[in-house]
Amino acid sequence: MNKIMLIGNLGKDPDMSYSDGGMAITKFSLAVSRRAGKSKSGEKTEPVTDWFNITAFGNQAEICNTYLRKGNKVFIEGRLQPRPYTTQDGRQGVSLDVVLNEMEMLTPKDKQQGSGTDTYLRGEEDPLGDLEDHPF
Q1: Domain map of the chain by residue range?
Q2: Residues contacting 7, CB < 8 A, separation 6+
């Protein structure tokens, strides 16, 4: 089974394009914070942020492009898809992208569409609180 579930904040506004066949394709980056544990002295360490490239197709792509903005908190369910690439110096690599199956907007409506939703990315308090405090 190839399934990944993420909760995070958009790192930039979505970018939508169309395939040669006319299918909508939207791409955006998602910042997901996680606790790195405790230091050797037992103090909490700063959260670590992992970045994921998300790709949506069809109707989901159009919805993401219409409603999501930089800083919005979203739940993403999808699958990992390897994408081979070659660097400018000729080295081969593989990037793991997330192909979106389901998306749920978690940012409250009054905080969406240019209402200061990038506060999380600026290091300010997240209006939904710490994910560690939620029961799921």
Answers
A1: 4-35+46-123
A2: 32, 73, 74, 75, 76, 106, 131
**Cα angle for residues 115, 116, 122 (degrees, 5° grid):** 165
**Which string of b and e fits 67-103 if b means at least 16 CB within 10 Å?**
bbbbbbbbebebeeeeeeeeeeeeeeeeeebbbbeeb
pLDDT digits (tens, 9 = 90+) for 82-102: 999 999 999 999 999 999 999
- Global pTM reads 0.74
For Cα atoms 27, 99, 50, give the angle at the middle one, nearest 5 degrees. Answer: 75
Q: Which CATH class is domain 4-35+46-123?
A: mainly beta
pLDDT one-digit tens code per residue, 19-76: 999 999 999 999 999 887 777 787 878 888 999 999 999 999 999 999 999 999 999 9
126 exposure class (CB count in 10 Å sphere: 0-12, 13-18, 19+): middle
Structure tokens at 105: 């907007």
Q: What is the signed CA dihedral for 11, 114, 17, 74, rounded to 10 degrees? A: 50
